[in-house]
Amino acid sequence: MYKFNKIEKLLKSAIIPIKKKELIHINQALGRFLAEDVYSRIDIPPENNSAVDGFLFKNKVLKTNIYKKFKVDSELNAGEKLKDVSLYKNIVKISTGAHIPKGFDVVIMEEDFVINEKIIYLKKKNILKWMNIRKKGEDIKKNQKVFSKGHFLKAQDIGMLSSLGINKIKVIRKIKVGILSNGNEIIEPGKNKLSHQIYDINRYTLLSLLRNNYINVLDFGIVRDNYKKIKQKLNSLKNKSDLIIISGGASSGSKDYVVKIIKEIGAINFWKVSIKPGRPFGFGMLKKNKPILILPGNPVACFVIFFLFGKKLLNFLNDNLSYKPEYYLVKSNFSMKKKIGREEFLRGKTFIKDGKMYVNKFNKQGAGILSSITWSNGLIRLKSNQSSIKKNSNLEFYPYQND
Amino acid sequence: MYKFNKIEKLLKSAIIPIKKKELIHINQALGRFLAEDVYSRIDIPPENNSAVDGFLFKNKVLKTNIYKKFKVDSELNAGEKLKDVSLYKNIVKISTGAHIPKGFDVVIMEEDFVINEKIIYLKKKNILKWMNIRKKGEDIKKNQKVFSKGHFLKAQDIGMLSSLGINKIKVIRKIKVGILSNGNEIIEPGKNKLSHQIYDINRYTLLSLLRNNYINVLDFGIVRDNYKKIKQKLNSLKNKSDLIIISGGASSGSKDYVVKIIKEIGAINFWKVSIKPGRPFGFGMLKKNKPILILPGNPVACFVIFFLFGKKLLNFLNDNLSYKPEYYLVKSNFSMKKKIGREEFLRGKTFIKDGKMYVNKFNKQGAGILSSITWSNGLIRLKSNQSSIKKNSNLEFYPYQND
């Protein structure tokens, strides 16, 4: 039985990250993994500029004017080319974002003046040099490293790339992930169901969980509990994708052929883990760098294991080896006993009361109760060495983050 | 100056949700909004079934056998049709998920027996009726309401729909959102930049933030600070999308025409709010139910305001009026003073130390510092009535949730 902490290491050491790159426009780059470090070729801001709508001064001139009355004699808007500095008289009306001509060093906000057409009277007292001026390069400096290879590009990162003037970047090529369900009992939704059959859940959940910009998802359908058919199918698929995810058929029943067949075709790296829900969960290779993730048939166990390890595996494949799921600390609103020696992941829902953050667990924690997943907003982690959970104790909470 | 809490109400009352539906396959339904309530037509599980690989008993028979030795005379796998109940002898080997024939009421796990071919000897003592049996309908009951109209469909919800046998559902039609940048200073990335120009950030960030399955994003480009051109553009766009988002040009500089023009074409519902960063932020209507969101030109303010209100607006348009962003409570790892009377949203990054969760703020909080957004993993909310933040005090933290 493999321990939780061991599995990450096993996955990491088994995976050879995909190195193939492609050059794409930043408008297509959301949710892709960078294939190269990104450096800035410019300063941001490119020049000193005004942080507010106001008036532009030379600090020296300001100090010598004891009446605090000024005549405004020019205007400078964002995006306007700077004229020869000598053409700017002492006082310039300036808009947010406009670049500061050389020699000027103070911007004072409009509301700090009494304004009478071209004549302005300064009310504010404490005037500091460089006030309301954003300095050249204060956000990003020229030649600074902005993102590292393997970085997952979020919306704000696309904005950052654009601000650097970069419209095309190299990302890891899309990875192909094939999804397969195994079982005699499962049928497609929309069809009429006999009483001993159930509709496929895992394939539809996984197809949706994998609908990311860096993945081409391939739907490999349902394969029945038939030794020959499973072997044929896995053999035929091993060159069609970078990763195969199969759910079901890995238990120890007489019709559970999946693990046996993978051992014959390739190798099983691990099988059976001390995680609840999570049995039977395994991982193997159909051939060199053709990993196969074997998820439990129970829909809750399938979801939980994919959430814990599937995402990691996908990040490792994209050379993002530092990936860790985000978690928060919350207080338990329940108490329970627990078996020592395995990690447990409960379906939980957070709430706030009297300035504290609590979590409830779903009342039915069975591996088949899909409502527990649709009801909850994340997983509660109970660690291997815990034997009981007391009310109000601190728990790690892993939000699903998929909306 | 509009207060934070007032804005949500103003947005909600101004928006007429889109009611048009379309029938789509569940494989296309991830990230769409349900246009109808969903009820289950079946029980889940459809029949009593085994939660484990084990042996199936009648509790009565078990009680009368004092030797605890049994002969296994049949086998029942998941997905097998049940034979006439009378054909099953007392002891049946059963696999996980297999349906329980009438009259049987106990499943005992394999590991609780000594197994010698067909003869099994029971080691376990406390045997309870219905042990290891999942009851028909324990997850979902026939005719139960599973999802409500306006529900946002996540991956696990697609799995749930599939498990109900539903392959097609009615969702709100995709909404069209047009993005526009305003300013003389901004140019497209990839082009050569003059010293007084900056690359467009907001349009690229927003195009990425809006790349959701329920949205068709339309890129309306950059419009210059020219009264005629802006008016022409807004007039030409008002029938082309369900929502327009424009950034920049809403300050009070002499070249800031956006608010003036919207007043002429339609109406401004509110403008200027007591949120930092967030000025100038406004909202109006180009005509009946053609809302326009006016975001600040500063990239941080633009991102923060979209995060706080843009997502709400999009949910309201999809009839999901109960939408609230998720937040967590964390402890401040900094102290600072704050102006009373406005909400502030700092860019923060969480970390865990000694079993407590803390947040750091980015060292430069200026509205132009885009690094603060790419560095942080969420926003820290400082409430209107706070005048200072002490170290270790509780703060609301809103994770970006976009990876």
Strand content of chain A: 25-35%
Name of the CATH first level of the largest domain in chain A: Alpha Beta
Under the CATH scheme, which architecture of the largest domain in chain A would be assigned? 3-Layer(aba) Sandwich
Mean pLDDT reading of chain A: 92
Q: Kindly provide the radius of gyration of chain A, computed on alpha-carbon positions and rounded to a whole number of angstroms.
A: 30 Å
Determine the number of helices of chain A (DSSP H or I, runs of at least 4 residues). Answer: 8
List the helices and strands and how they pair.
The structure is a homodimer of 403-residue chains.
Chain A: H1 4-14, E1 21-25, E2 38-39, E3 49-50, E4 54-57, H2 59-64, E5 69-71, E6 74-76, E7 92-94, E8 106-109, E9 113-116, E10 119-122, E11 133-134, E12 145-147, H3 155-163, E13 168-172, E14 175-182, E15 186-187, E16 198-199, H4 202-209, E17 215-223, H5 227-237, E18 243-247, H6 258-265, E19 267-271, E20 275-276, E21 282-285, E22 291-295, H7 299-317, E23 328-332, E24 336-337, E25 343-353, E26 356-361, H8 371-375, E27 378-382, E28 388-389, E29 394-399
Parallel strand pairs in A: 6-7, 14-17, 14-18, 15-16, 18-22, 20-25, 23-26
Antiparallel strand pairs in A: 1-13, 2-12, 3-11, 4-7, 4-8, 5-10, 9-10, 19-21, 21-22, 23-29, 24-28, 25-26, 25-27, 27-29
Walk me through this protein's architecture.
The structure is a homodimer of 403-residue chains. The first copy, chain A, has 403 residues and is of the alpha/beta class. Chain A folds into four domains: 4-20 and 173-317, 3-Layer(aba) Sandwich (Molybdenum Cofactor Biosythetic Enzyme, Chain A), CATH 3.40.980; 27-41 and 145-172, Molybdopterin biosynthesis moea protein, domain 2 (Alpha-Beta Complex), CATH 3.90.105.10; 49-134, Molybdopterin biosynthesis moea protein, domain 3 (Molybdopterin biosynthesis moeA protein, domain 3, Beta Complex), CATH 2.170.190.11; 328-399, MoeA, C-terminal, domain IV (Beta-clip). Chain A contains eight helices and 29 strands. In chain A, the strands form nine sheets. Chain A has a six-stranded mixed β-sheet, with helices on both faces. In chain A, strand 25 (343-353) and strand 26 form a beta hairpin. In chain A, helix 1 (4-14) crosses helix 7 (299-317) and helix 5 packs across helix 6. At the A-B interface, helix 3, strand 16, helix 4, strand 23 and helix 8 of A face helix 3, strand 16, helix 4, strand 23 and helix 8 of B.
